[in-house]
Amino acid sequence: ERSTLVGSAFVLAGCYLLLCLVCFLMIVINDPAHWQSYFTENYTNVLTLAMCTLLLFFIVYYYYYFEDKSFLTQPHNVALVFTLIIVCVIVCYAFGKLIDIYARPCALFALLCVFLFNRRQAILLNFIFSVAMFVIDTYTNNFSIDGATTQVYYSLMLNFVCGTFAVFAASGAKTRAGLLLTGCAISIPTIVIVTLLQVTSISDDPVIFLISIGCAVFGCIVSGVLALSGLPIFEKTFNRLTVFRLRELTSTNAPLLVRLKQEAPGTFNHSLIVAQLAESCAVAIGENAELARAAAYYHDVGKLKQPDCFTENQTGYN
């Protein structure tokens, strides 16, 4: 166990260095002509950014160390968490840079986490991600070169509030269409947040206000679309079981279940009955019903080796 924890720590260190590289590239892209002077004149900001992001990474690591140490014994789990953070930082930065601060897919990280992990972990990780984006926006030149320093607070509120709403709204989604609808549904609280943040500009420049509202709705919808397209990649790469993957595995068209139905029909019918019982029990005690049903479907697939040796697949007296 100690060796695996050390391996997870090395994975964390590698992801941290990758995030530092991403922040470096942000500073260069934001001001290609004078990025060297930014490092010499604002080296304290760079050091603060490095230390704050390092502390945030260690907070995540120690959370799992005390709450779910078994999670850390598999380094690919640590890689998944911090890969999500880095990818979503890059995506949010790109949308904010190329379109508008309000067009950032602020709920993307929360939507991915609630399906790849669970609701409790998603809430904590979304908080860490929101603070990380706030720190990056504050201590890099993301907005300072445009004179719009208050936009970092807009980003913090949108990331935290919209992400939290997304966690609770998406936790009940059982289909990929439901995930897309969640992206549309969270646009309602997002519009409220943007209205509160831009309340002073409604009378001054209503056009800018309407553009901000449109960008915010666009960001929510994009969050759902990107989460829908990104989930299969993370599921396959990091071998995670989501509710969508479980439903695909329990489809009667799944290759192994098709074999079971054709080669061992008695065992297949038995598995269906066990699945109904297991799912009912899981619902009654508040456990993962989809996982219980999938486990029941596949619990006897070993009988495919010699199906005729088992009584439920025999037709006459044996």
Describe this structure in words.
The chain has 318 residues and is an all-alpha fold. Helices cover 77% and strands 0% of the residues. The chain is built from 16 helices and no strands. The chain has helices spanning 2-30, 35-41, 43-67, 69-72, 75-98, 108-116, 119-139, 151-170, 176-185, 187-197, 201-204, 206-238, 243-249, 255-263, 265-285, 289-298. Helix 3 packs antiparallel against helix 7 (119-139), helix 6 runs parallel beside helix 12 (206-238) and helix 14 (255-263) crosses helix 15. The chain is elongated.
- Shape category: elongated
Strand content: under 5%
- Count all strands and give the number: 0
Low-confidence blocks of residues: none
Separation of the first and last Cα atoms: 49 Å
**Secondary-structure-derived class:** mainly alpha
- Helix/strand order: HHHHHHHHHHHHHHHH
Main sheet overview: none
Percent helix: over 70%
Alpha plus pi helix count: 16
Structural descriptors:
16 helices, mainly alpha, elongated, 318 residues
Short description:
With 318 residues, the chain is mainly alpha-helical. The protein is 77% helix and 0% strand. The longest helix is centred in the last third of the chain and has 33 residues, at 206-238.
Produce the secondary structure layout.
Layout: H1 2-30, H2 35-41, H3 43-67, H4 69-72, H5 75-98, H6 108-116, H7 119-139, H8 151-170, H9 176-185, H10 187-197, H11 201-204, H12 206-238, H13 243-249, H14 255-263, H15 265-285, H16 289-298
Helix pairs in contact: 1-3, 1-5, 3-7, 5-6, 6-7, 6-8, 6-12, 7-8, 8-10, 9-12, 10-12, 14-15, 15-16
